[in-house]
Each structure stands twice: as structure tokens, then as C-alpha cells.
Write a structure and sequence with these properties.
Layout (H helix, E strand, L loop, with lengths): L3 H7 L1 H9 L18 H6 L2 E6 L1 H18 L3 E5 H4 L10 E7 L5 H12 L3 E6 L5 H5 L2 E4 L12 H21 L4 H12 L1 H9 L2 H9 L6 E6 L3 H16 L2 E6 L16 E5 L8 H14 L3 E7 L9 E5 L7 H20 L7
Parallel strand pairs: 1-2, 1-3, 3-4, 4-5, 6-7, 6-8, 8-9, 9-10
Helix pairs in contact: 2-8, 2-10, 4-8, 4-12, 8-9, 10-14, 11-14, 12-14
The structure holds 6-O-phosphono-beta-D-glucopyranose.
Length: about 350
């Protein structure tokens, strides 16, 4: 690999596999020793707050969808740089989950101290053994992504998403909102992610070629719904950070409340098409695609095999998965897109 970022993109199947390995015992129970949260602690939780910065914040946004569905505990997500200066309402029944690749991000560290001073329990999701954040937290779940050298986070994000899912499954199982068969089913679906990621990585070269068609564009918009919404935000963040292009991510339902005005003839819009028909999410995204196309957008859809996308100029296929797990797959083409846009525009990919 010419650059660390592409090397790390290709390390994602292994990073996800390592983060999952050995987490489910023969009896179907999740094994998360390094969490150090007792059954009593877990029963006591009445609110969960994810805090993080940058890309890690997006993993918290995705984690919230899973956490609330699987545990029925109210869950919030907040930027550490906002949380640390607020007066959040916390108690010893609040579980704060701090997410950080490096374990050294100052805003996240300060947010942890702010939470602990008010009696909250702090669990950290971290990729770096012995870093300050896990040392100051009450408990830690280490992601096993290996060192991330490129500044823009890639494999750390995927492992963080997986870690939030593992915590959600564990809490759901202990609190009885999930039974062990449900936990095993979701865990087994997660075990299929590395092979699906490998399939996506086989398409990197054509994706790079496609990306170069957009190298002269000055605005790229991203659209998603449900867990595809944080994926859209992540796609935009990567593009801003690496290629220095105006990029924004929107929730599909918000288009009509202003953002659609940004679309001009030829504006690239990357749409993450949901894997699910639940709540009509897929149809709603397809109608968003028609709306932006009517304003002249060039739509690039990210969608599972077999989904028909009328109006898309290009379709990037990813393997089908349950909706909750889709971000782990859908994020990868966006990483490659940002990488290639940065290369085409001559910016420094590894040290933006
Ligand atoms: C940013 C990086 O500056 O820091 C992001 O560019 C990263 O990729 C963010 O997500 C937060 O870092 P960390 O180490 O706390 O996850």
C-alpha cells in the first residue's frame, strides 16, 4: 500500500474479526470480562450517554439505535466537547460510554472527569491499551483494531461500532430484554461481517476509478436514514477532512427542510439505501433519491445486492445484512471515496 489509510482500510476485516473473537461462550452468554460491570451495576442503569469526538462520535450515534432497541434503556449521544461544558443531569444510575481510538483525546477525557464528578459510571471503548481514558474509566472494552497510523479513523470506527453492539447485547441479555437465542443470532450475524468486508474490498479498484470522475466537484452531499444517517455524516466528515471539499451529511427526512436547496445540476449525492423495509425506510430513501434527482443531482447509491434503485447514476453494491449491522459495511466505500478524492486533488491523506 502507498499510504497507511488504504492499508488500514484493508485491515478492517481482521480488526472486526479480532474484536469479536471469543466474545460468546458455548452456553450462548457474552464474555466481556474487561467491562468490569456487575449484574447489579447493569440492573441499576437508567440512562446511557455515549460521548466521543469526530468519527468516534458517529459510532456512538449508531450504537444508540442498537442500544435502545436491544436494552430499552434511554440512550443519548453527545460530543465530548459540548458535554464537558454543560450541566448534564447524571446520577450513579447513569452509564457514560466514552469512545476513543487513541484514548487520549482531551475533550473526551475532560468529559469523563465531568461525568465521574457527578457520580456517573464510566465505561470506555478504546483501541489503545493503557491509555489515559481507559485508565480513568471505571471499566473498559478494548477494540482490537491494532495501531491506527493514518489520522483519519477507519478500522477504529468499525471496531467501535462492533463494541457498542457487544455492549448492547450484553446489557440486553443481563437485563432480560434479549434472550440468549436472540443474542446468538445477532452475534452470529456479526461474525459474518469480516467475510462481507472482504467482498467489498474486492471492489476497491473500480470504486477508485468511479471516484475520480468526481474529483473536480466542490460539493458532495450524503443522505441516510436510521443507522444510515450517521454513515452519511461519516462520509461527509471523511471527505472534508481528507479532500478539503464542502461535504454534508443529512437525514433523508430533513431534505425538505432546507438542505435540498443546496442541490444544483450535477451535484453528487451519495445515498445510503437501507437494508430494511421496516417503517418503509427503503421506499422513503428511494423517494429522496427521486427528489434530489429532480433538482439535477447525480446520485450514487450504496445498496445491497438485488435492490433496484431507479434514478441512480451509479450503484455501489454491498452484501446484504441486517439493518443494524449495515453501517459496518456501508462506511467502507465512503472511506475509499474520500481517500481517492484526496489523492486526485493532491492533499495529504495520512496527515491531513
Ligand atoms: C480526530 C481524528 O482528530 O480525532 C478522527 O481525525 C478521530 O479520525 C477523532 O475520530 C477522535 O479521536 P479518538 O482518538 O478520540 O477516537
Amino acid at each position: 500500500f502507498d499510504l497507511f489509510m488504504m492499508k488500514e482500510i484493508f485491515e478492517q476485516p481482521k480488526a472486526v474479526a479480532e474484536t469479536l473473537v471469543g466474545r460468546l461462550a458455548q452456553d450462548g452468554k457474552l464474555v466481556l470480562e474487561e467491562m468490569k460491570l456487575s449484574v447489579g451495576d447493569i440492573a441499576n442503569i437508567d440512562k446511557i450517554i455515549f460521548i466521543a469526538c469526530g468519527t468516534a462520535f458517529h459510532s456512538g450515534m449508531i450504537g444508540k439505535y442498537a442500544m435502545e432497541r436491544w436494552t430499552r434503556i434511554p440512550c443519548e449521544v453527545e460530543l465530548a466537547s459540548e458535554f464537558r461544558y454543560r450541566d448534564p443531569i447524571l446520577s450513579n444510575r447513569t452509564l457514560v460510554v466514552a469512545i476513543s481510538q487513541s484514548g487520549e483525546t482531551m475533550d473526551t477525557l475532560m468529559a469523563i472527569r465531568h461525568a465521574k464528578a457527578q457520580g456517573a459510571n464510566v465505561l470506555s471503548i478504546c483501541n489503545t491499551q493503557g491509555a489515559t481514558i481507559p485508565r480513568e474509566a471505571d471499566a473498559v472494552l478494548y477494540t482490537r483494531g491494532g495501531p491506527e497510523i493514518a489520522v483519519a479513523s477507519t478500522k477504529a470506527l468499525l471496531t467501535q461500532i462492533v463494541a457498542t453492539f457487544l455492549i448492547g447485547l450484553h446489557l440486553g441479555e443481563v437485563r432480560g430484554t434479549l434472550n440468549s437465542a436472540q443474542v446468538s443470532e445477532i452475534y452470529n450475524e456479526m461474525l459474518e461481517l469480516p467475510a462481507k468486508l472482504e467482498q467489498i474490498l474486492e471492489t476497491v479498484e473500480p470504486l477508485r476509478e468511479l471516484t475520480r470522475k468526481f474529483a473536480e466537484k466542490n460539493t458532495v452531499l450524503f443522505l441516510g436514514r436510521h443507522v444510515g444517517f450517521p454513515v452519511a455524516l461519516e462520509g461527509a466528515l471523511k471527505l472534508k477532512e481528507l479532500a478539503y471539499i464542502h461535504a454534508e451529511g443529512f437525514a433523508g427526512g430533513e431534505l425538505k427542510h432546507g438542505p435540498i436547496a443546496l442541490i444544483e445540476e450535477g451535484t453528487p449525492v451519495i445515498a445510503i439505501v437501507p437494508n430494511t423495509h421496516e417503517h418503509g425506510l427503503d421506499e422513503r430513501m428511494l423517494s429522496n433519491i427521486q427528489e434530489v434527482r429532480a433538482r439535477g443531482a447525480q446520485v450514487i447509491a450504496i445498496a445491497a445486492e438485488g435492490i433496484d434503485i431507479p434514478g441512480a447514476a451509479h450503484i455501489i453494491r454491498i452484501p446484504a445484512s441486517p439493518q443494524m449491522l449495515q453501517p459496518v459495511l456501508a462506511t467502507v466505500p465512503l472511506q475509499v471515496f474520500a481517500y481517492e478524492m484526496a489523492c486526485a486533488r493532491g492533499t495529504d491523506v495520512d496527515q491531513p
